[in-house]
């Protein structure tokens, strides 16, 4: 049975937004994040290595919930599903992508930045949404404003979040989890410093604590 998108929020307060340049980095990176308590992994479809990285993580590390980010088309969604992605994340929303993900039973976390986009996504049955790009689209004040007309919608703010401001976002009642690229810095991946990745993951997990 497919995950419900809101279930992606349960394992931890931060979903890492991952860019993988080299396929061989996929497994050690995923293992390092898992060692730090982070189970939900969003591998963005921004590089040629992404789909094979998803495939390897899905096959070798079933305890991880690996999904595809930067899903911009029906073809992207299908390719992600075929690679073993357990969910998809899109930077924006179209009904075409929403329908396609339902048809192939790929849970979707759709991106929105405005009330009109929230209306479009909720009209298609999506009520857990990625708020992107969070900082540029109004940040915490915008999320507070959206809570009024959309009290039944939950958000995953992504874009411009840091270890320093993530806790403020997570304190909002309509924020269930946030997305962050700081858990997998490219320089740290390039250096193969997997212990540092694990430390970053543990620190992110601690953001849930009061």
UniProtKB/TrEMBL annotation:
The keyword Transmembrane does not apply. Keywords: Carbohydrate metabolism, Lyase, Schiff base. Transmembrane segments: none annotated. The keyword Lyase applies. One of its GO terms (molecular function) is 2-dehydro-3-deoxy-phosphogluconate aldolase activity. It catalyses: 2-dehydro-3-deoxy-6-phospho-D-gluconate = D-glyceraldehyde 3-phosphate + pyruvate. Belongs to the KHG/KDPG aldolase family. This is 2-dehydro-3-deoxy-phosphogluconate aldolase.
């Amino acid at each position: 049975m497919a995950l419900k998108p809101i279930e992606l929020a349960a394992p931890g307060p931060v979903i890492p937004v991952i860019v993988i340049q080299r396929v061989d980095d996929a497994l050690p990176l995923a293992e390092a994040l898992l060692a730090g308590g982070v189970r939900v992994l969003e591998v963005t479809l921004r590089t040629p290595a992404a789909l094979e990285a998803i495939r390897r993580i899905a096959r070798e590390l079933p305890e991880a919930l690996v999904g595809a980010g930067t899903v911009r088309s029906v073809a992207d969604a299908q390719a992600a599903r075929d690679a073993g992605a357990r969910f998809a994340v899109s930077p924006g929303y179209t009904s075409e992508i929403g329908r396609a993900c339902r048809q192939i039973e790929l849970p979707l976390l759709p991106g929105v930045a405005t009330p009109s986009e929230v209306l479009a996504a909720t009209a298609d049955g999506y009520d857990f949404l990625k708020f992107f790009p969070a900082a540029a689209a109004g940040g915490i004040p915008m999320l507070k404003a959206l809570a009024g007309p959309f009290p039944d919608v939950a958000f995953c703010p992504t874009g411009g979040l840091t270890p320093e401001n993530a806790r403020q976002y997570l304190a909002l009642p309509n924020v269930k989890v946030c997305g962050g690229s700081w858990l997998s810095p490219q320089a740290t991946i390039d250096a193969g410093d997997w212990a540092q990745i694990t430390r970053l993951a543990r620190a992110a997990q601690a953001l849930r604590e009061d």
